[in-house]
C-alpha cells in the first residue's frame, strides 16, 4: 500500500476534516452524475477520480484511521440498507420469467470468473479479483465493496484499477446490449411472446415519497441491528471474517417477513448510496496511478472473459426456456449494470411489463452477490 505523504494538507489523524472532504467529493460526484458525461461514466468512477486527484495533490493522505472505520462499519451498514427491499416472496412473484434468465446470467458470471482465473495470470490477487468481479456482476457496486471488506481485500490501487476496468468495459457491454435490442436477427431468434411486452400499468410502481427523519432513523437502526447480530452469529460460528453473509441472510429474512411494514420506509437506498460513495472515495485516496495502469491489460481481458461466458449461458438458457429478446436484455443488464439500468432499458424500449421484473431481479442480485463473491473466492484458491 502506498505510504501516506508526510506533507498532506490534511493530517491523517484529522478525521472530521477528511470526512468533510469525502462528503464533498460524494456531493460533487452525485451532482456530476446528472450531466451527460456523468451518465456515461457513473458517479462511482467520478468519486474515485476526484479522490485520486486530491491525493496526488497531497490535499488528503493515502491512508488514515478513519479510512479503516469506513471499511469496517459503513460498508456493512450500506449493504444492510440496500437489502431492506429484498423481499424474496415479492421478488419471485414479480420477477416472473426474467428471474430465470437472470439465474442463467448469474451462473455465467460465476463460470466466467472461474474460467478467467484459470486461463489468465492475474498475479497474487487473482482470487480477490475473481471474488469482487463476480459479486459486482451478480449484484452491483455495493456487493463489490462488501465482498472486498469480507475477504480482507483492502489494497486501494488494485481495487481502484478493478473499478476503472469495470466502468470502461461495462459501459461498452451495456451499449452493445442496448444496440442489440433493435437487431432484426436477434428479435427473430428470440421472439417468443414479444407481443405481450408493451401493455401494463405504471412501469415501476407508485412514486416513492420523500424520506423523513423517522424513515432514515428506522432504516439505519434496523440495518445496524442486523450488522450487530450478523457479526455476533458469525463470531459464534467461527466465521468472523464472513459476518457480511450472516448480515445479508438476516436482512433478507427481515425484508421478507416484515415486507408489509418495511415497504412504507422511504429512502434507505439514498443513505446506502451515500455511504458507499465514501468507500469509493477511500479507494481513490489510496490508489497508485502507475500500478493501476499496469494492472489494466490483464484485468481488461479477465472482464471480457466473464462477459463472454455470461452471454453464452444466458443465451443458452433463453433457448432452453423459450425466453424472448427483451427478457434476455433486461436480465443481462440487471446482472452487469444493476436494477437502475435494467429499468431504464425496459422503459426506453417500451417493455413496460418488464420494468417491475427488472427491479426484482436487481434486488435479488444485491442479496446473492455477497454469497457468490465469497464462494468464488473460495473456489479460486482464496
Concise overview:
The protein has about 375 residues and is an all-alpha fold.
Tags for this model:
382 residues; mainly alpha; 18 helices; 74% helix; globular; disordered N terminus; transmembrane helix; transmembrane; DUF819; membrane
Silhouette: globular
- Rg from C-alpha positions? 20 Å
Mean pLDDT level: 85
* Strand residue percentage: under 5%
Biggest sheet overview: none
Please provide the ordered H/E string of secondary-structure elements.
HHHHHHHHHHHHHHHHHH
End-to-end CA span: 20 Å
Q: In the residues, how many domains can be counted? A: 1
List the total number of helices.
Answer: 18
**Quaternary status:** single chain
Helical/strand content category = mainly alpha
**pLDDT < 50 runs, ≥5 residues:** 1-5, 201-206
Q: Give helix % range.
A: over 70%
- Strand tally: 0
Protein name: DUF819 family protein
Pfam families: DUF819
Keywords: Membrane, Transmembrane, Transmembrane helix
Transmembrane segments: 6-29, 41-60, 66-86, 98-120, 168-186, 216-237, 299-321, 328-349, 355-377
Amino acid at each position: 500500500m502506498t505510504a501516506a505523504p508526510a506533507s498532506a494538507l490534511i493530517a491523517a489523524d484529522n478525521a472530521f476534516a477528511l470526512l468533510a472532504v469525502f462528503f464533498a467529493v460524494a456531493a460533487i460526484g452525485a451532482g456530476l452524475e446528472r450531466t451527460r458525461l456523468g451518465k456515461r461514466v457513473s458517479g462511482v468512477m467520478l468519486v474515485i477520480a476526484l479522490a485520486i486527484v486530491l491525493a496526488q495533490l497531497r490535499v488528503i493522505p493515502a491512508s488514515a484511521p478513519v479510512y479503516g472505520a469506513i471499511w469496517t462499519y459503513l460498508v456493512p451498514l450500506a449493504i444492510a440498507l440496500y437489502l431492506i427491499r429484498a423481499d424474496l416472496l415479492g421478488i419471485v412473484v414479480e420477477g416472473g420469467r426474467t428471474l430465470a434468465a437472470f439465474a442463467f446470467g448469474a451462473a455465467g458470471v460465476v463460470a466466467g470468473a472461474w474460467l478467467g482465473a484459470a486461463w489468465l495470470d492475474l498475479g497474487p490477487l487473482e482470487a480477490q479479483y475473481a471474488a469482487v468481479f463476480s459479486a459486482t456482476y451478480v449484484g452491483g457496486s455495493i456487493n463489490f465493496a462488501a465482498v472486498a471488506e469480507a475477504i480482507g481485500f483492502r489494497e486501494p490501487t488494485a481495487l481502484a484499477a478493478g473499478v476503472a476496468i469495470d466502468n470502461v468495459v461495462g459501459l461498452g457491454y451495456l451499449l452493445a446490449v442496448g444496440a442489440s435490442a433493435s437487431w432484426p436477427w436477434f428479435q427473430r431468434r428470440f421472439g417468443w411472446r414479444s407481443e405481450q411486452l408493451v401493455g401494463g400499468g405504471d412501469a415501476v410502481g407508485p412514486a416513492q415519497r420523500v424520506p423523513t427523519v423517522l424513515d432514515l432513523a428506522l432504516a439505519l437502526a434496523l440495518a445496524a441491528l442486523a450488522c450487530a447480530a450478523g457479526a455476533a452469529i458469525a463470531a459464534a460460528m467461527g466465521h468472523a471474517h464472513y459476518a457480511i453473509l450472516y448480515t445479508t441472510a438476516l436482512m433478507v429474512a427481515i425484508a421478507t417477513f416484515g415486507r408489509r411494514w418495511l415497504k412504507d420506509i422511504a429512502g434507505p437506498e439514498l443513505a446506502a448510496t451515500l455511504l458507499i460513495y465514501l468507500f469509493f472515495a477511500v479507494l481513490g485516496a489510496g490508489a497508485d496511478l502507475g500500478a493501476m495502469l499496469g494492472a489494466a491489460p490483464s484485468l481488461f481481458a479477465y472482464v471480457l472473459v466473464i462477459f463472454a461466458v455470461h452471454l453464452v449461458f444466458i443465451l443458452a438458457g433463453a433457448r432452453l426456456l423459450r425466453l424472448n429478446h427483451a427478457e434476455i436484455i433486461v436480465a443481462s443488464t440487471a446482472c452487469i449494470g444493476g436494477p437502475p439500468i435494467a429499468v431504464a432499458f425496459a422503459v426506453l424500449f417500451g417493455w413496460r411489463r418488464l420494468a417491475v421484473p427488472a427491479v426484482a431481479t436487481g434486488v435479488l442480485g444485491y442479496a446473492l452477490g455477497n454469497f457468490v463473491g465469497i464462494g468464488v473466492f473460495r473456489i479460486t484458491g482464496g
